[in-house]
Amino acid sequence: xxxxxxxxxxxxxxxxxxxxxxxxxxxxxxxxxxxxxxxxxxxxxxxxxxxxxxxxxxxxxxxxxxxxxxxxxxxxxxxxxxxxxxxxxxxxxxxxxxxxxxxxxxxxxxxxxxxxxxxxxxxxxxxxxxxxxxxxxxxxxxxxxxxxxxxxxxxxxxxxxxxxxxxxxxxxxxxxxxxxxxxxxxxxxxxxxxxxxxxxxxxxxxxxxxxxxxxxxxxxxxxxxxxxxxxxxxxxxxxxxxxxxxxxxxxxxxxxxxxxxxxxxxxxxxxxxx
Length: 274
Description:
Elements: E1 4-8, H1 14-27, E2 35-37, H2 46-58, E3 63-68, H3 74-86, E4 91-95, H4 112-123, E5 128-133, H5 144-157, E6 161-166, H6 170-182, E7 189-193, H7 200-209, H8 215-223, H9 228-248, E8 254-257, H10 263-271
Parallel strand pairs: 1-2, 1-8, 2-3, 3-4, 4-5, 5-6, 6-7, 7-8
């Protein structure tokens, strides 16, 4: 089976912690290469992120924290890197991140490439650095070419692996991968996969992050209304077919945005071993 990795977000309640722990046990059947844990705007979930990472590591799996630099100082980032290293962590998802509402400024790092360069300066090759890629363009980028060059800057600064934002269009992934290769960059680019478990929430989230859901998929999802069973069955069919095409086209792995649920991701992955 193609290598897979999983993404979780830190739960906010004891019930959420218990549910995620149960979901992880189901998902470990996929033998994930690593499990990443998101980091709220401005580091707002820092404690929850590390608690979840430590729980994953305690279960014998590779836990990888997201680490964003927005609003941060070089001194503060250096201290966090030292803490990660002391805890035995050797992989990070390095991101610029989002400013929390009402936050004053960007801090000493404007871009993820600057964070990556600082990590290499401070910690050498200790950390494997995973970065974000946007096959359909980052929503704040000036143009596709500018976005591609921004990605190249992250790779040249020392990124090891890239994971894309969620996609529903394999062609966008293949084109981005080929454009990166034309720049002479050989970094592995892993497509990010979001199972479809609802309609309105998914479309709202996609619109906010600049991810395109094909019109025919949107219309079909809207036609199901509140029929959750039909939405999930259709989603499994559409996203599963995309995963099969990505694998056939040479994707080096699949990164699943699990939304802290096991069933939808397991169902998609099972299609790849039939």
